[in-house]
Amino acid sequence: MYLSQLIAADAVNQVLSGRNLTLALPEAQVRFPQATPQQRGGGADLSYGTLRFYGEIEVYLRQLLEKPLTDRRIHTLLLVAIYQLMHDKADAFTVVNQAVHAVNQLKRPVPKAWAKGLVNGVLRNFLRQKARLTVFADTNEVARYSYPQWWINKLKLQYPAHWQQMLVAGNQHPPMTLRVNQKKITMPDYLNLLQDQAIEGVHLGEHAVMLAKPVAVEKIPGFKDGVVSVQDYGAQLAAPLLDVQAEMRVLDACCAPGGKAGHLLELANVHLTGLDSDEVRLARVQSNLTRLQLQANLLVGDAATDEWFDGRLFDRILADVPCTASGIVRRHVDIKWLRREGDVSAFALQQRKILPSLWQKLAKGGKLLYVTCSVFHEENQEQINQFLNNHVDARQLPIESVLSQQYNNMIYMNGQLIPNNLHDGFFYALLQKH
């Protein structure tokens, strides 16, 4: 267990220093080559869990320390262990002993005897004072919800009736949802295929199956053959809303990692151009399309410029713009602690450059679907309102009828999906040029 704790502490330390978890975790695992695959997996689980509840456990730790620790490695090791004592099923005695043992594995400069005594004392104090600390945490919103205070305040203001359930949903383990390619298999046949493999799943909406328990992708029936893809139920709404028809010219801007591009091509035989500014991420799009046995013209380019554009207008544009990703925090637990309040306006500024640029590339009568995985109004309807004020040739089309017909189990308001146990938080605005 101590190697899992060390891997997690290293990864968490990197995130709290400003690094993305998707980069930090593999690096942390490499630093402990003696760890088994199971221990590396355990380190990943502890990393996600510690960051998911970081607001809570950091408040606990501050109450237990007489003064801040200068060694961040010891600090994050304590965070990981407190997470285990609060939320993991591991035996408390084992957690404490393994955390003390983990100190011995830290490289210099660490005064081992002092550090071991500190770790042991803090964790045993936590166990003794757990009831008192929990009561104290209930009076602190950062501890109670495990979000930065600015984030809590913003949701309170923007979602007075939903803010608490949104915060709670963001701390849940995300569901695993599949998108069934019904060009290759019917929904009843795929559900039978799952049943044959003793995998429990429930049909949602038009193309989705939510699994009762996560399954390794290589064990998902039909995955390697492109019969199904892993995609959040809320994200599966994009392609149907865009209303693509055969032979249309379609642009998927900011297309990586390619889930929505694949869905568009599954729905109709369109001429799809996928655009992304990141060549590495674009390679992932190609990998996904290859697995699905689909084709698209993939371009490296900035959606806010004309450098990549050949002058031929598009009938449909999917503008899946960069955003704070505040609606998918349960999948990316580091976002809560990496984002700053000023990032919201920075992303909004970037979006204000992309949307008008893409609009110029849309044919008259064509439709553009503006998408974010954010829940903040500044990136969503406020962005659309400002765009409509500046573009007399644009009108926003209602999408409620589509939602009510096929997706009536989604929770939404004014194009905003409210994150819950079925789906993440996405925003959709469908615009038409006239």
Could you describe the 3D structure shown?
The protein is of the alpha/beta class. The chain folds into 3 domains: 2-145, N-utilizing Substance Protein B Homolog, Chain A (Orthogonal Bundle); 176-230, Alpha-Beta Plaits (2-Layer Sandwich); 235-433, Rossmann fold (3-Layer(aba) Sandwich), CATH 3.40.50. 48% of the residues lie in helices and 15% in strands. The protein contains 18 helices and 13 strands. It has helices at 2-16, 21-30, 37-52, 54-64, 72-87, 92-104, 112-137, 141-145, 149-158, 163-170, 187-196, 238-242, 259-267, 279-292, 335-338, 341-359, 381-390, 400-406, and strands at residues 176-180, 201-204, 208-211, 228-230, 249-253, 271-276, 297-300, 314-320, 362-372, 394-397, 412-413, 416-417, 427-433. The strands form 3 sheets. It has a 7-stranded mixed β-sheet, sandwiched between helices. It has a 4-stranded antiparallel β-sheet with strand order 2-3-1-4, with helices on one face. Strands 11-12 form a two-stranded antiparallel ribbon. Strand 11 (412-413) and strand 12 form a beta hairpin. Helix 3 (37-52) crosses helix 5 (72-87). The protein is globular, with a radius of gyration of 24 Å.
